[in-house]
Amino acid sequence: MSEMILGIDLGTTNSAVGVVDSGFPILLANEDGRRITPSAVWIGEDGSIEVGAKALRRRVLEPGRVVTSVKRLMGRRMSEVEDDFPVKVETGVDGLPRVLGKTPEELSAEILREMKRVAEWRLGVVVTKAVITVPAYFHDAQRAATKRAGELAGLEVVRILNEPTAAALAYGLERLGEKSRVAVYDLGGGTFDLSILEMQDGVFQVLATHGDTRLGGDDLDRTLLDFILERAGIAEVSQLNRVRLSAEAERVKMALSNESEAVFRVPFYDGSRSLEQVVTREELERLAAPWLARTQRLCRQALADAALKAEDLSAVLVVGGSTRMPAVRRAVAELFGCEPDVSQHPDEAVALGATIQGGVLGGTLKQMILLDVTPLSLGIETFGGLMNVLIPRNTTIPCKAGEMFTNAADGQLAMRVRVLQGEREMAKDNWELGSFDVPFAPAGKGQTRVGVQFKIDENGILEVLARDITTGVDTIMQIESAAVDVDDMAVEAMVSASVEHAFSDMAERVFTEARMKAEELLPAVEAVLNQGLADDFERAEIDAAVIAVKEALAAGAANPLKAAVQRLDTATEALAARLVEQALDAALDRQLAGE
Ligand code: AMP
Q1: Which of 498, 529, 551 is the last residue before a domain boundary?
Q2: Is 538 in the same domain as 457?
Q3: DSSP 454-488
Q4: Coil, strand or helix: which one is 452?
Q5: Helix or strand or coil: residue 569?
Q6: Is the separation of the CB atoms in 130 and 476 below 8 Å?
Q7: Residue nearest atom 7 of ligand 1, based on CA coordinates
Q8: Cβ atoms of 259 and 251 closer than 8 Å
Q9: Is the minimum distance from the CB of 253 to ligand 1 under 6 angstroms?
Q10: Is the CA virtual torsion 444, 463, 205, 489 positive or negative?
Q11: pLDDT digits over 445-468, tens only?
Q12: Are 39 and 13 in contact (CB under 8 A)?
């Protein structure tokens, strides 16, 4: 049975809500006839609350009682809050931020409650479920805070959807059936994301995503204001005055998207002094250059992650309010070598995509599905403390992968399955998601076989199954939200660490693998030599190779050990072949004698 699920874009600056109605995703307008509602909350002295344009209008008289950009506080600790947040941020008893006595979740819940109210008022029915969008680079705590905000607003949050993915869904709805790879460049007020998606026949696959949760139009407003203040020789302004001045800086910035110059004018900003200056687009663009370069760097990283070049993309969508700036569009064109696709409404595409996803989940829209990717590799620890990857990073989910493992020692009673996540070569440098033992009957080394299978479902839940092949007994462990909901900063740190340590990690892996081979080879060679099958010439070379292996082992040198093991392998090759031949001859003789 199909049900109505709202799609909500909970934006830093504006929010929007939609629903699939009669098979079409539509955004719902508020009482002002606008599909976009400012993400502003006014809290009166008596605790009364107003949201949206009504709240913003109160800012002139009561700037300290109107909260905007609350999204920038979601899931953040006090130490992570910027100094110039538009209203005063205090520390709550739990050490987390409070604004006017409310948590960021409670404030966001007011915005969500308003979106729910607008939708119910338009639709004439009660709606209790929603898909809410977040920047792709929101980490776990920020996503969890968004979900809690939804619950506080009386909504069951059926999916937290990444904003750029939502924009691609909106773009893709008109292009079902076409195969294309698109990048979504999303530069809003507070965050930047670049996602690369592939779509075909209504299936959307996220190939890579990169971004920064603290990079957006607000930064440019700040930079512009600092520039103006410096030019005017003003060293300091109070936080309250800064709010008014920032609002004017933003207005000037937006005006410069259409004009080549604009006047920054704030009369009596501190009660007595006024500030008036002409700002040119050229000046703004000069200030924006380092800011744009940061977005370009992140784009290159996403392309590299998806193993794609700019020319492999069929389109680059731009969404988010800041992409209205001509300099932003030029930077996108320059990087990707094509004009950005502006077919999507920069303020509405995300809400529309959330609405589409709501329609898919509610069963009212059937022709699309969305696939996500694993942010980090998943695997288990194997012999020698090595990481054995079963599902590599950036694999589309849902997915499944398995491998066979054997016991490392004679008579071993159980095998420990340590489930790991990360990009490092050695297990100890990755994160352990969980572990369990698979018991088995004692047998010789390498004789007990255990099949390990990793399965990630569409919600990112990882199921690890270990099967003792002899008995067929399964041991299963479920790891919730480990596969996709990883703290994005931690993902970034892990990936950078893997790059930073690439050489030493690889050397450690090479050494460990060679050491294990040496430990297996040395006793075997000794046993064969004792049988006296080697000629003098062979024997000399084998002895020399054995010494080289032992020396390299003692020195802990990876490449020399690998080379020495290889030498020993080669030196014993002919001998090993002779042994096999002898064994075969003996078997044949036995067979003939039996006949
Ligand atoms: P969003 O988070 O997508 O709602 O985007 C909000 C950001 O877009 C804010 O930083 C706005 O200042 C910025 N913005 C909106 N319109 C324009 C415009 N015409 N030119 C430049 N920036 C804009």
Answers
A1: 498
A2: no
A3: EEE-TT--EEEEEEETTT--EEEEEETT-SS---H
A4: strand
A5: helix
A6: no
A7: 189
A8: no
A9: yes
A10: negative
A11: 888 888 999 988 766 678 899 998
A12: yes
Q: Which two tokens stand for residue 399?
A: 């997915």
- Write out the residue range of the structural domain in which residue 304 sits: 6-216+288-373
Q: Residue 178's pLDDT is what?
A: 73
Q: Which of 9, 12, 13 to mutate to test the pocket of ligand 1 (most atoms within 8 A of CB)?
A: 13
Confidence band, pLDDT 50/70/90 cuts, at residue 520: confident
Q: CATH no. for residue 455?
A: 2.60.34.10
Residues 484 and 542 in one domain: no
Pairing verdict, β 378-382 and 414-421: antiparallel
Give me the active site residues, please.
9, 71, 163, 186
Query: Is residue 282 in some structural domain?
Result: no
Is 257 touching ligand 1 by the criterion CB < 6 Å?
A: yes
* Ligand 1 close to Cβ of residue 217 (< 6 A): yes
pLDDT band, residue 484 (cuts 50/70/90): low
- Per-residue pLDDT, 367: 66
Same domain? 183 vs 91: yes
Q: Which of the four pLDDT bands, split at 50, 70 and 90, describes residue 369?
A: low
Q: Name the strand (E) or helix (H) holding 587.
A: helix 573-594
Q: Do residues 163 and 83 both lie within one domain? A: yes
pLDDT digits (tens, 9 = 90+) for 408-449: 888 888 888 999 988 899 999 998 888 899 888 888 888 888
Residue 537 lies in a domain: yes
Amino acid at 444: G
Percent of the chain with pLDDT strictly greater than 70: 95
Q: What phi and psi, each to the nearest 5 degrees, are found at residue 240?
A: -65, -45
Residue 221 falls within a domain, yes or no? no
What SS3 class is residue 183? strand
Residue whose C-alpha is closest to residue 486's, from 142, 9, 197: 142
Helix (H, G, I), strand (E, B) or coil at 419: strand
Q: Is 329 in the pocket of ligand 1 (CB under 6 A)?
A: no
**Domain match, 557 and 422 both:** no
Residue 482 in this model has a pLDDT that exceeds 60: no
Tallying the residues shown for the chain, one arrives at: 595
Sequence-distant (6+) residues with CB within 8 A of 174 are none
Instruction: Indicate whether 255 belongs to any domain.
Output: no
Name the domain count of the chain.
3
| Banded model confidence at residue 208, pLDDT cuts 50, 70, 90 | confident
pLDDT at site 488? 60
For range 157-176, the mean pLDDT = 84
Secondary structure in 3-state letters for 159-171: EEEEHHHHHHHHH
Sign of CA dihedral 354, 355, 356, 358: positive
DSSP code of 213?
A: T
Tokens at residue 356, please?
A: 């589409």
CATH label of the domain that carries residue 543: 1.20.1270.10
